[in-house]
């Protein structure tokens, strides 16, 4: 019995997990969760994630939620196959991967998610885009990416000269952000731009991105 | 004897106190190095070398320099796996145990921390800093926190601690914000009015490690 990923192909957090699974040379069954019908708030899904959010992973008897916990689990379980996502054989490198995973989680994510939500998601629900929220978060994003630009001058990827979960976790939200009018925030920073072009062209993510269709007509 | 690890930042900082609690649980000797935030030391070039986002804490262990409190805690648990509290981040043998801890650590970071951090700032720190409170933000985040604590109430009726039947990093990570909410604001009732959450809070906040950290905050 293989991995079952409960979520949607177009969801950022589902895509985060899907990319990690492919990076490890593994496969999964995508079990669609009907958000429009409120399936994620029904008891059968709440039993998998009591917070009522996608994705959730089923691996035999184990059920896990929180995409960044799931990717860490996948990276560890399949550590002997595919790409080394967590540098488990090197304490120092593994620690640096953890640092930049938290940077994405605590510093980068809230800002970029706010922009992507206002620009791409709010209109889907008939909500008015709040430009003030976008503007405020764009300013914060620029400052954050200035730090990334500086970091990426001294190493090819965030945790060192190796692609890791720290980079992978950024993929889905930046992908949707690059469908917005504000791509210069990335493209004006040459090292950030080069890093983005590199990580987003990995075969694992290109496969996942095919399903990331929010905003497409 | 190994050099003590270094933690940079004031103990009253929630993120610094998270790391201190972990070091005490793991019985890892440390040196606490002050960072004068009121003088902007955390934004000066020397400090930005070890924490480029200008936040506390920063951490050094021999030639490893880290930041982000939750990653520092995970590192401490992995490097010092054989000493102190050995259940804090799994026993190294069972990936399912660690996965459950990571799941609830992520829940803390993604669901509990955002609303509780706003409330801690607005209710405990803004008045001290003579900043005007944002009542809209307080109301909105109180509602968010209630929903999160409803999930915790259900979970803590099924197991003694969040990740299972042992105290882990997942519980520890909640200590700093919850402490301020319970002791420095009128939001404590959100915890104490929920039976399982109240029981859990009482157990985790009375651990020797946390009592010691609170003592450090109070004498700072």
TrEMBL record, chain A:
MF annotations from Gene Ontology: glutathione binding; glutathione transferase activity
SUPFAM superfamilies listed in its UniProt record: GST C-terminal domain-like, Thioredoxin-like
Keywords of the record: Cytoplasm, Detoxification, Transferase
Keyword Ribosomal protein: no
EC number: 2.5.1.18
Pfam family, one: GST_N
GO process terms (BP): glutathione metabolic process; toxin catabolic process
Chief site of localization: cytoplasm
Protein location: Cytoplasm, Cytosol
Domain GST C-terminal: 90-217
CDD domains: GST_C_Phi (cd03187), GST_N_Phi (cd03053)
UniProt protein name: glutathione transferase
Source taxonomy: Eukaryota, Viridiplantae, Streptophyta, Embryophyta, Tracheophyta
Automatic annotation (TrEMBL), chain B:
Catalytic activity: RX + glutathione = an S-substituted glutathione + a halide anion + H(+)
Keyword Zinc-finger: no
Location within or outside the cell: Cytoplasm, Cytosol
Residue ranges constituting the GST N-terminal domain according to the UniProt record: 3-84
GO biological process: one example: glutathione metabolic process
Location of the GST C-terminal domain: 94-220
Group of enzyme by EC: transferase
Pfam family, one: GST_N
Keyword set, alphabetical order: Cytoplasm, Detoxification, Transferase
Primary subcellular site in the record, as a coarse category: cytoplasm
EC number: 2.5.1.18
Source species, domain of life: Eukaryota
GO terms for MF: glutathione binding; glutathione transferase activity
GO cellular component: cytosol
The keyword Transferase belongs to this UniProt entry's keyword annotation: yes
Cited InterPro entries: Glutathione-S-Trfase_C-like, Glutathione-S-Trfase_C_sf, Glutathione_S-Trfase, Glutathione_S-Trfase_N, GST_C, GST_Phi_C, Thioredoxin-like_sf
CDD domains xref list: GST_C_Phi, GST_N_Phi
Record family assignment: Belongs to the GST superfamily. Phi family.
Protein name according to UniProt: glutathione transferase
């Amino acid at each position: 019995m293989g991995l079952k990923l409960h979520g949607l192909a177009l969801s950022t957090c589902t895509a985060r997990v899907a990319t990690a699974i492919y990076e490890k040379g593994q496969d999964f069954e995508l079990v669609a969760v009907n958000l429009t019908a409120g399936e994620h708030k029904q008891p059968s899904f709440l039993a998998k994630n009591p917070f009522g959010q996608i994705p959730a992973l089923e691996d035999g008897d184990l059920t896990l939620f929180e995409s960044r916990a799931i990717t860490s689990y996948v990276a560890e379980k399949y550590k002997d196959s595919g790409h080394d996502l967590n540098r488990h054989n090197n304490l120092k490198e593994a620690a640096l991967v953890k640092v930049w995973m938290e940077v994405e989680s605590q510093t980068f994510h809230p800002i970029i998610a706010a922009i992507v939500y206002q620009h791409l998601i709010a209109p889907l629900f008939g909500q008015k885009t709040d430009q003030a929220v976008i503007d405020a978060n764009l300013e914060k994003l620029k400052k954050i990416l200035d730090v990334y630009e500086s970091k990426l001058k001294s190493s090819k990827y965030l945790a060192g000269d190796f692609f890791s979960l720290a980079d992978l976790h950024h993929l889905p939200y930046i992908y949707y952000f690059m469908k917005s009018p504000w791509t210069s925030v990335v493209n004006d920073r040459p090292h950030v731009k080069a890093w983005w072009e590199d990580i987003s062209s990995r075969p694992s993510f290109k496969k996942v991105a095919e399903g990331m269709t929010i905003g497409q007509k | 004897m190994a050099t003590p690890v270094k933690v940079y930042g004031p103990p009253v900082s929630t993120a610094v106190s998270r790391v201190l609690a972990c070091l005490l649980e793991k019985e890892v000797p440390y040196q606490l190095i002050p960072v004068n935030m009121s003088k902007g030391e955390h934004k000066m070039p020397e400090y930005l070398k070890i924490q480029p986002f200008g936040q506390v804490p920063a951490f050094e262990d021999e030639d490893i320099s880290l930041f982000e409190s939750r990653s520092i805690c995970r590192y401490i648990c992995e490097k010092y796996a054989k000493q102190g509290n050995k259940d804090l981040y799994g026993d190294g043998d069972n990936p399912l145990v660690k996965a459950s801890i990571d799941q609830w650590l992520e829940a803390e970071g993604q669901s509990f921390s955002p609303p509780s951090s706003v409330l801690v700032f607005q209710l405990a720190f803004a008045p001290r800093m003579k900043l005007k409170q944002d009542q809209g933000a307080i109301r909105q985040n109180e509602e968010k926190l209630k929903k999160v604590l409803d999930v915790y109430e259900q979970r803590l009726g099924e197991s003694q601690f969040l990740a299972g039947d042992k105290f882990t990093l997942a519980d520890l990570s909640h200590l700093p914000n919850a402490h301020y909410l319970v002791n420095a604001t009128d939001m404590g009732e959100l915890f104490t009015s929920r039976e399982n959450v109240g029981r859990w809070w009482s157990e985790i906040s009375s651990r020797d490690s946390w009592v010691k950290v609170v003592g450090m905050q109070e004498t700072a």
